[in-house]
Amino acid sequence: MKKLNVNTIVCFGEVLWDMLPTGAKPGGAPLNVAIHLKRQELNPFIISSVGNDADGQKLQTFLQETGMNLEYLQTDDVLPTSQVLVHLDSEKNATYEICEPVAWDNIQFNKKMENLAEKADLIVFGTLASRNETTRKNLLKFLKHSPAKRFLDVNLRPPYDTRDVVEEMLHLADFAKLNNEELATIALWNDQKGTEEELVRWLSEYFSCTIVCVTRGANGAALLKNNTWIKHPGFKVIAVDTVGSGDSFLAGLIAQLSAESSPEKALEYACATGAFVASRQGAVPEYSVRDIEAFMK
Fold first, then answer.
1. What's the pLDDT score for residue 38?
2. I need a surface site. Which of 13, 155, 169, 262 has the fewest CB within 10 A?
3. What's this model's pTM, rounded to 2 decimal places?
4. Domain for residue 147, yes or no?
5. CA distances to 41, 96, 111, 125, 199 from 164, in Å
6. How many domains are there within the chain?
7. Residue 182 and residue 170: Cα distance in Å, rounded?
8. Which residue stretches of the chain have pLDDT < 50?
């Protein structure tokens, strides 16, 4: 498996407070992925924006405590720090009410970001942050200035799941992660039918994504890499909440791709990371690589 050079990883997009039944927790897929990458002993940077308010200050304090570099976290004097209402069903699966407009809808491109773009090895971005034209336009500028590989984390969050935007992001990506429901939705948009493997192979070819990973909640995940289809049934755990589980899965996958692991090992490790996080409270519980390795045994 070709080594993925990830000395400098950029996570671009939303940072926010998840308003869970148990209280407010830091969240947003790019923030979660960045912290999980840090847990995986990698070097992520966050590009986002918070409001000039108490919620923004608390989020910055939290990120500082995780050891995150905040050089590219902007402060918006007009728009507030984002809050998302999270509802958990009986299976502990989450649905979201995402307020707008918020600070991360107004991420600005500047010279400092241009310099980061030029030295980045990997940029992780999602579809949600592109709901607003300003942030979408400045993400495109960042991508234009960067030689980095591009990893798209598909997040179809109605009503911010416009086909045009989602497919534009897919066409820009080298790699993509999505869940089985999102795969079915994108296939339906394009009148595609078939097995999961057939739909993933279609998506990989149509959008020119060399790696496509599809997650299946408690039922594990599958990975298409170098035209090879690999499946893993997942690890059985008692879920506390699934918020952040997919983000930790993605971080685990990136960590293994960067460490020259086999596709089979990469998928197994990613599934283990996602399951471990689902068995803990909050999107970014404390853990180490050794904890995941022990869990796999």
1. 96
2. 262
3. 0.94
4. yes
5. 36, 22, 29, 16, 19
6. 1
7. 12
8. 1-2
